[in-house]
Amino acid sequence: MTGQAYRVVASCFEPDERHPMGQRREALQAHVAQLLREQRPDLLVLPETVVAFGLGLQDRWGAEPMNGPTVAMMAQLAVASQTSICVPIVEDDAGALYNSAIYVDRRGHVVGRYRKRVPTVGEIECGIRPGGADQQPVVLDGLRVGTAICFDENFPDLIWSWVASGIDLLVFPSYTYAGELMRGWAVNCGVPLVCAFPWESVIYDRDGAVLAIAGTETSTMRLGHHLPWIACSLNFRSRIYHLDFNQAKLKELAARYGGKVDIRLMVRDGRVMITAISDDVDINRLEREMGFVPLQKYLRDSRTRAEDGAEAH
Fold first, then answer.
1. Are 287 and 166 in the same domain?
2. Fewer beta carbons within 10 angstroms: which end of the chain, N or C?
3. Sign (positive/negative) of CA torsion 150, 155, 160, 161?
């Protein structure tokens, strides 16, 4: 998935806490249908526990199975619009509850799931279990997608699991802001990040730059001048590299490719971002020709070498 822009949308949907689950789903269906008609995205990300926010013990927190009515409804819309959708729910798995993000592809098939690794103390006391440590990226359109949900942002050790697995994109359904903590996740992994939070969704580029940001607490949206979502097209013809070994090749890169690539130095982070801006430049071929080592691979190899060295002593 390197040859074209990838359209992503982060929803700012928030259910009316006075409404029962049926009305909440109807409101979500109308919101998503309008969004998909307007934006035709490749990927839509919905906020954390999208229809269940505010439900209590008497409603069992709005829990439903992975193949329950909310995911089924989103699957129908995914097929109709040829869009993949991240559908966060309170998941009921044979009586065990999880704060989950369910991924539905363009064919309406469930192709992956992420369970929140670190629920809050309040969630745990309400019966929400933590997700396993061995969760793998979800593959959508050839992209390897890593996920974090809300409170996960506070645990930087979770970043390494995605670096170790290798990812192209981070998704963050949330009920809190994706501020500097989540910007750090994007920069550390060297991949774009899409946060869906009703009050303020944000989309970061792989270098931490803000590509889009707004929510229901943004004045323009609150006044009704902007619909409750943000959207942008991500460029997967762009890569982040560590400066180690790679910076010595930048002059040669400029000589070979000239104005066909953009080079953005990120010296204070020890990195460089290289973006193909000409249609006749394939970023994968460029990487092989120049011998550039992708950031995540370099980090994995470095850790392996360090661990092997420690064991030898």
1. no
2. C
3. negative
CA angle 232–16–21, rounded 5-degree value: 100
Domain that holds residue 297: 238-312
3-state secondary structure of 238: strand
**pLDDT tens digits, 191-231:** 999 999 999 999 999 999 999 999 999 999 999 999 999 99
Grade residue 278 by pLDDT with cuts at 50, 70 and 90.
very high
Instruction: Say whether 305 sits in a helix, a strand or coil.
Output: helix
DSSP character at residue 277: -
Are residue 228 and residue 308 in the same domain, yes or no?
no
Tell me the C-alpha distance between 143 and 167, whole Å: 7
Residue that finishes a domain, picked among 191, 215, 235? 235
Average pLDDT of the segment spanning 2-18: 89
Of the candidates 84, 85, 13, the residue with the CA atom closest to the CA atom of residue 51? 13
Verify that 148 and 290 share a domain, yes or no.
Answer: no
- Averaged over 244-258, what is the pLDDT? 96
Task: Mark whether 175 and 51 lie in a shared domain.
Answer: yes
Q: What is the mean pLDDT of residues 32-39?
A: 98
> By the 8 A CB rule, do 65 and 91 touch?
yes
Place of tokens 């730059």: 209
Report pLDDT for 196: 98
The reply to whether the predicted model has a pTM over 0.90 is yes
Q: Which of 182, 205, 235 corresponds to the end of one domain?
A: 235
The three-class DSSP label of residue 147 is: strand
Q: Can you tell me the distance from the alpha carbon of 190 to that of 239, in angstroms, rounded to the nearest whole number?
A: 8
- Select from 221, 228, 140, 146 the least CA-distant residue to 188: 146
Residues 6+ positions from 86 with CB-CB distance below 8 Å: 43, 44, 45, 46, 101, 102, 103, 147, 171, 173, 196
